[in-house]
Design a protein that fits this description.
Layout (H helix, E strand, L loop, with lengths): L2 E8 L11 H4 L5 E5 L7 H13 L3 E5 L17 H22 L5 E2 L3 H9 L1 H14 L4 E5 L3 H9 L2 E7 L23 H14 L1 E3 L5 E3 L4 E5 L5 H14 L3 E2 L4
Parallel strand pairs: 1-2, 1-9, 1-10, 2-3, 3-4, 4-5, 5-6, 6-9
Antiparallel strand pairs: 7-8
Length: 252
């Protein structure tokens, strides 16, 4: 039976600002990417999210981003190889401490937002992130955009690498995600999103905004946890995948 990991960016509250239905989302996903304080999240949110993920049996990963709370980590910054490396080590280490207290093991690392997109196309940033993850633990899984520079860097250094696809984002003909600054970057129709995901899983293809099929590998599907209807969408996509004969389970 075909299977897929369903992951969600989560723990992106900060201080008094909270996102709805975070606990509800964890009922439907198999992997959680927990914000580590740079783009969102704070120590208390990290601790609470770790506990919720463990309670629901969800695999836990670090979600390091650029140090940009105001821009939610979605604005690119000019950073060096060493800065990218250090940012990842620092943020993963913070989440690891909370996991150690709970006696839980970290499954993966997935960069967030602009850092993720930069690593998808910039070999130097990709190599810095992969090296940081490998140096922390070669047993960690690196999540990256399918067939991108980041997944290439992870595979080159010897990490288990999960090629990630997106349920609610459109694609360009080079395999990158359509920028959020452009029209039609997001897919808001849940049935259209499901159809895209099923095709990526079963056929390894996605229709780009230019109308050209792009070949990609789908190991894990991302659902964003900061949307107004995120929990409902998580439930819906899991149910529809199962109806299509696709089992939803953790990457390993």
């Amino acid at each position: 039976m075909t299977s897929i990991d369903l992951n969600c960016d989560i723990g992106e509250d900060f201080g008094r600002y909270t996102l709805p239905n975070q606990k509800e989302i964890l009922k439907y996903v198999t992997s959680a990417n927990i914000a580590c304080g740079f783009h969102a999240g704070d120590p208390s949110v990290m601790r609470e999210t770790v506990k919720m993920a463990i309670e629901h049996g969800v695999k836990i990963g670090a979600h390091p981003g650029l140090p940009d709370l105001v821009g939610f980590g979605r604005r690119e910054m000019a950073i060096t190889y060493q800065e990218a490396y250090d940012m990842v080590v620092y943020q993963v280490g913070a989440l690891q401490a909370f996991l150690a207290i709970e006696g839980e093991k970290m499954q993966h690392v997935k960069p967030h937002g602009a850092l993720y997109n930069m690593a998808a196309r910039d070999p130097e940033i990709a190599e810095a992130i992969a090296k940081a993850v490998y140096d922390i633990s070669p047993d960690l899984i690196l999540f990256g955009l399918a067939s991108s520079e980041l997944t290439k860097a992870g595979e080159k250094i010897g990490l288990t690498t999960a090629h990630e696809v997106f349920a609610d984002r459109t694609y360009q003909m080079d395999g990158t995600l359509t920028s959020r600054n452009k029209p039609n970057a997001l897919i808001t129709d849940k049935d259209e999103a499901v159809q895209q995901v099923v095709r990526m899983i079963e056929e390894g293809k996605v229709k780009s905004r230019q109308g050209v099929d792009v070949h990609l590998r789908a190991d894990t599907v991302c659902i964003h946890g900061d949307g107004e209807h995120a929990a409902d969408f998580a439930r819906y996509i899991k149910e529809e995948l199962q109806k299509n004969g696709i089992a939803v389970k953790a990457f390993i």
